What we know:
Layout: H1 5-10, H2 12-38, H3 42-53, H4 61-68, H5 72-84, E1 88-92, E2 100-104, H6 106-113, H7 120-127, H8 131-150, E3 166-167, E4 177-179, E5 184-186, H9 188-191
Antiparallel strand pairs: 1-2, 3-4, 4-5
Amino acid sequence: MMFDPQQRKENRSARIMMALFRMSQAIKKVTQVESDEQGLSPVQIQALLFALYTRSDVASIGNFAKAIGTTHVTAVKIINGLVTKGQMTKVPKKEDRRVTLLQLTAKGKEAASSLEKWGYTLEEALHSIPDDILEDFEIGLSSVITAMQRRGHLVVAEPCLDCIHFLPNTGDSTTPHYCSFMEKYLTHEASLKECPEHISSGNN
């Protein structure tokens, strides 16, 4: 058990688990402080960034709930708070009106653009660590994230490139790329946005 200091002495996994737990606690603390500076909660900031960086046709309340690991009901409450602030709107998806898509208003885009430095405390901490150590750390973290993703504990959204569903340069000049999962052609700009259905081809 990671909370038992005696077990941590003999168990590498327990030491790593405790380190990750302590990191999560620290990240929660610093992001709360930074969020307070913006007059928003951390989850509201995540919602704004989700709507800003996620491809518009998959920026749904359901996918947002999966992205932050919460229930659909809780996600709706978070979004409704931003709707009340005039920063976000909810629009039924044309292809399936049961799905609600999220769109930033002009006020929401302004708020999201001001979040460029959100997370700066963690970034400053990383800058103090040598590159060779960070390189190994990144490889290790990626392995943990992949393992958690395969077990269904988190969603890793990435742009289309390197996704098994992505077929580049198969369309026309307006929508040059094709997504075999969504069965639709995409503009190049859309392919640069994050998609929660991304599955890495393993080429990178």
